[in-house]
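User: I'm curious whether this sequence folds into something compact or stays loose and floppy. Could you predict its structure so I can see for myself?
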Amino acid sequence: MRFFLTFFLVGLAAHAQTATISDTITASVGGGNWTGRVTVTLNSPGSAQPLYSGTTSLAGWSATYCVGVTGGDCTATTAAGAFAATLYTNDTITPAGTSYSARFQPTRGPQWSETWTVSAGNTKLYQIRATTVPTPTTTFTAGQLALAAGRILYGNSSGVATSLAAGTNGQVLALSGGYPAWTTNISGNASTATALASTLASGAILKGQGTGIPAASIMSESAITSTYDSTARTVAAITDGGLARVIKSRPSTESKRIVIYGSSVAAGSGASTYANSWAGIFSTAMTAKGYTVYNPSIGGNSTAALIARFWTDVAPVSPDFVILASGFPNDGYDQTTYLANMHRLIKMIESIGAIPVIFGQYGDNTVDATILRKKQEIYAYFDKTGLLIADMFGSVADPATGYWLPGVYTDSLHPNDTGHAIMAANIPYTWFDNAITARAAQRIKTASVLTLSNTSTSQSPILVTLDRPAPSWTVAGWFRDGGTADRAFIGITNSEGNVVRARNAGGLIDFAGASGVLISSSVNGQGREWHHIAITHQGNTKTNSLYIDGALIGTVVGGSTAVTATAFAFLGRSDTNTLNMIGGSIAMPLVYRAALTANDIKQIYSGSIPIRSLEWASSLSQTPTAGMIRNDADTSVSGVVASASEWTGPAPFIPNATTATQFSAAASATPASATSACTTGAVQFDASYIYVCHATNTWKRAPLATW
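Assistant: Here's the prediction. I'll summarize afterward.
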C-alpha cells in the first residue's frame, strides 16, 4: 500500500537556513486520512560529530511526529492527514554529506523508510525524497572539534576522526590492536618492549625475565586457564611452564563490582531516562545492596565490537559479574557469528575471574519465523551450558511471533519504560548474593521425593519467599496427593494476601482463585498417582496458564488472578492452615522469575530443566526433617519445610525422557484391577509384578523373576 504524505517538522531555529514542507496525507487504497508516527533522524556523514547549521549544534537530532495519534514519545502532534515541517537544508549543515532518515510507522499496514535531502526552496515531499544517500565528507572547523584538555585525536578503522581521553600520570601511550591506548610504563629495554607490544595479540601478556626486559615468549588469551579464590578475590592464570600471574587482586573490603556490557537496550535506549531503563533500575537496586555497577554499553555494538574493547572497557574494572547484553540484530541475525563471539566473550570473562550472566533475547517487531527460531535456539543452547540467563522473552514478547507485547515498546527494537521495568523484574537479584561454586543445571538432574507426614491440615506446607515481588513467574513440580480431596498442591501469594492455587478439588485437579474455579480439568488428583503441575503468570497481559503432565489445560486473564507473587507454598497454602496436604508428596519443585513458554513446560515435564531466570529449585536430595531446604538454583532465595516432614525414596518416573537408561518407581499398593484409575505412564510394582498404565484407567502387568 502506498500513501501520499504531508509533513511539517516544527521547532527548528528560525535563523538557520531552512525549507518549509507542506503536503496532504491520503491513503491511496480506501481513501481517508493517514495516521501514524514518523521518526525523522539527521544522519551524520561517517558518524562524524558534531553537526552544525550555522552556530546551532544538531548532534544527535531526532524527532517523532504523530499524525492523528498521540503518545508520550511524540515531539509534535497534528490532526490526521495534515502536517507541516521546517527542516534545515542539508547543504548548509557541516560537515557536508548529511541526509535525513524518515521511518514511517502507520497505525495499520507495514512500516517503511525513506531518505530525505532538503534544499532551499523545497516545499513538497516528492522534492526531498532521495534515491541515493549523499556521499559524505568529513570536514571540521577548529571550533567544532571542542576537544577536552589532554584528549588525542586519531583515525578509526572507518577513517573517521575520534579521540582518546587523557591518561593518568605515569602512563605511556602504546598501540593496542592498531589504535593508541594508555598503559603503565614498561621498564627496561625500550626497543624490545616496543617491538613486542607491536605484535601482541588481543589480551596477550608479556613475561618478565627478572631483568626488567620483557621476554619474547608470551601467553595468549587462549592459553589461559584460571582458578578463582573467592576469599582472596583473585584469579591465578596458569599457562605453559607453570607460569602464574595474578590477573585480578582487590581488597576484600571493597564492594563487589558488576559490569553491564552490551548495546543500545543495555545503554537505556527506549526509556525516558536512564534511571527508568532496566540497567538503571538494576543499578539502583544493586547499589543499595552494596555493589558498584559499571555500564560501558554502546548502542549498535555487535559481539565483535564487544570483544574488541573488552580488555580496555571491562577487564580493568576487575568485575565479579559481567552481564552480556548484546542485541542479536547488531550481528545481522547471524546465529553462527553471534554464538561463536558469545563463546569467546564468556571465556574472556571467566579468564579474569568474573562470572558471566546472559541477558536473554527480547522482542523485535522486524523478525520473521526464521529469526524467531534462531532466537529460540539461542535460548535452548545457553540453557544447556549451565550459565546464568535472564529470561526476557516470555514477559515482553509474544512467543508465537517474537514481536513485542502491546504497550511495552518504543519502536521495533527498543522497549519503553514499561518494557524496561519488566525486564529488570525478570533478573533474579539474588544471583549476585551467592559465591557460586557449581552450575544449577548440574545439580538438579536427579530428584528425590519429600513426603509430608502431616496428620492434620493445620501443619504448615513448604514455603518459598522471594526477595522482592515477581510480576511474571512460573511455578512447577511433581505432586502426589495423600489420598484426601480438596487440598492445595501449589499456593501463590501476593503482597495483599490474595492467593491463587492449583488444587485437588473434588478429586480433580483445577486452578482456583478467590472467586472459585478458574480453570478445570478432568485429571484425577486423588488417586495417589504422580502428576506434573505447572502454572505460569504473564504480568503484562495478566494471563495465567495451567499445565498438567506437560499439556496446556487452559488460560484465564485478569481479575483476582493478576497476582504479583511474593511467596509460593508447595503442598498447601500460605494464607490458611485449612487446605494443606495430609501425607502429600513432592519432587523437583521449581520457581522462575519469568513466564515460561509451553515448550519450556514440556521440556521440564520431560526431565530437562531450563535455568534462565530460575529463582528457586530443589532436588530435595539433602532435605532435613525440619528447617531450610537446600536451594539448588544460583540464588539466595530460601525455602522452609515444616517439622512434620520426612524424606522418602526416589523421584517419580518422568515420561517422555529420551536420554534415561533407567528410572526408579516408588512402591505402592497393587492396582485393584486392570481397570483401576490411572494416568498413562504411571508405574507401580509389588513383590510379584510390575504394573504399567499404558492407557487411561488401563493397567498391564508382567511377572518379576530373577536370573
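Summary: Residues 335-351 form the longest helix (17 residues). Confidence is low (pLDDT under 50) at residues 1-15, 185-253, 435-443, 654-664.
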